[in-house]
Amino acid sequence: AGLGEFRIRDLNDEINKLLREKGHWEFRIRELGGPDYARIGPKMLDHEGKEVPGNRGYKYFGAAKDLPGVRELFEKEPLPPPRKTRAELMKSIDAEYYGYRDEEDGILEPLEQEHEKKIIAEAVEKWKMEREARLARGEEEEEEEVNIYAVNDDESDEEGGKEKEGEEGEQKFIAHVPVPSQQEIEEALVRRKKMELLQKYASETLMAQSEEAKRLLGL
E strand or H helix at 212, and its extent? Predict the structure, then answer.
């Protein structure tokens, strides 16, 4: 380690050069029918020479493994974070995940209102253009006024409604509730007046006798 960085690099390169030459001689011996020293020869261990992952064939020996820039290559990559289970993933899912709180920040609603105004303006402009085009072709017809109080001739009065007819030329209406006549109203007022007078001047005994007589007569 005391030889210095450059000297250590030169020596490491020289060792790798000799190893390559050794490999060529082993391959030539095998071609000539000799023994396969690459297979039966002694194996080189990692503490003698170690290859950088992804750089097969070049080895670092001794102090060369601690050179700047080389040490980092031998550091193990951190393990990937463990994968979360389905139950752990479901814990972080709330109403916000489904978009129920999108309008609470006050950002989405103004954008929607602005977009709505734009769509309405485009629809109105399109209607105006179509109307002008129809007017230019002479196809525009006068809009008929719709009378919400109009009654069709074939409309029935099954619910007991009575038709109120005015003078000739006036609009006809249908009342969907029974409307009493003037005579019925007067009779109802007279009966009410009699009951008030009877309750005012008749005694309780007379009232009881009157009710008993009505009961016996079946009235």
Answer: helix 204-217
